[in-house]
Amino acid sequence: MSLMDKSNNRLLIHRNMDSVSLKHNIEIILTPTFYTFIREELDIRFAYQAKQIAQSLFDDYLDPSREYQYHVSKSDGAWYFYAYDIEEIEAFIESKGIEKHRVSKIYFAQELSEELTQPLQVDTQMALQTIEGIITMIPLSLMESDVEFKTLKLEDLKLKNGVSMGASHTSLVSLKETILLSSLFLILGGTFIMEGYRIQSSTAEDESELMRLLDDNPTYGSSMIRESILEKYQPIDKLERQKRQSIKDISKLLSAKSELKALHIEKSKISADISTSNNNIIKQIQKSAKETNLKTSISGNSVKVERSL
User: Fold this and answer.
1) I need a surface site. Which of 146, 170, 193, 243 has the fewest CB within 10 A?
2) Contact criterion met (CB below 8 Å) for 94 and 20
3) Which of 123, 98, 103, 105 is nearest to 15 (CA)?
4) Residue range 185-214, pLDDT digits in tens
5) For the CA atoms of the chain, what is the radius of gyration?
């Protein structure tokens, strides 16, 4: 079965779809079997910062022998993280008769969460439905025999958080994003650190809200946060607070000209390796790190920041 709207050239991609023959460009919507999804409420302002920590959030969920790409978006105050294997997707669609150069945009079925409170049958075995805010593939065998399926009109969908096929093969930050971010930081300049202090002053309230949301969705937290959830009916201890605050402080050191290479969370220490483009960025990171009591060490164009817990 293929759910395709010819007027808008959109196609829902699922494992048991029929082969198609195309002579025009299309947009594809991936079902959850082609991506892994995590929803997090984090004290991060910019998408490039969220994207740089995305890989660490998926450590316990992905096959370490495969290479993944990451996409982030923000909705209702939460960050949405997607991990997907673009080579797997390309190979699949080409096996169904879709040349990869004809795919102009890739979207994720999670964007349909508000549309699919009622199930959508995608083939003879599976359906899509929103379960606790998450788009999920559900075997038809688990549904009532008299269930009423939704008819999806792709031409009515307003999708906005897609990624181009070509961009999936590029670095963490695209050229367009880099230009926009560079302009943004030129404007923000000296206000960046002041804004950081403002955000830090409100973290106590954010921490409480974060824990409430993660308690509601325990399967979508990172390994560090899941450990905290095991104690959700007990007071949050000092060590867990230090870990979360340290990650937030490290994320504020990132910019369009620096990149998070590694994040290490140990029992008594948290550290991160950040690569930079020049000495000015290194000095900026050192200054900001000092203001949040993070220790730094320099090696070439890389900065290691750490904090004892």
Assistant:
1) 146
2) no
3) 123
4) 556 555 545 555 555 555 555 555 555 655
5) 21
Instruction: Give the confidence band of 5 by pLDDT, cuts at 50, 70, 90.
Output: very low
Say which residues have a Cβ less than 8 Å from residue 220's Cβ, sequence separation at least 6: 37, 38, 39, 40, 134, 214
Furthest-apart CA atoms within the chain: distance in Å: 66
The Cα–Cα gap between 177 and 185 comes to 12
DSSP secondary structure letters along 40-86: E--S---HHHHHHHHHHHTTTTS-TTS--EEEEEEETTEEEEEEE-H
Decide if 250 contacts 305 (C-beta within 8 A). Answer: yes
pLDDT the model gives residue 256: 82
Residue 130 is encoded by which pair of tokens? Answer: 């929103």
Tokens read off for 198: 């403002």
Q: What angle do CA 115, 14, 51 make, to 5 degrees?
A: 70
Cα–chain center distance at 139: 26
Token pair 């808008």 is found at 8
pTM of the model: 0.57
Mean pLDDT over 273-288 rounds to 91
User: Which residue, chain included where needed, has tokens 């809200």?
Assistant: 209
Mean pLDDT of 245-274: 87
Query: Measured between alpha carbons, how far is 63 from 59 in angstroms, rounded to an integer?
Result: 9
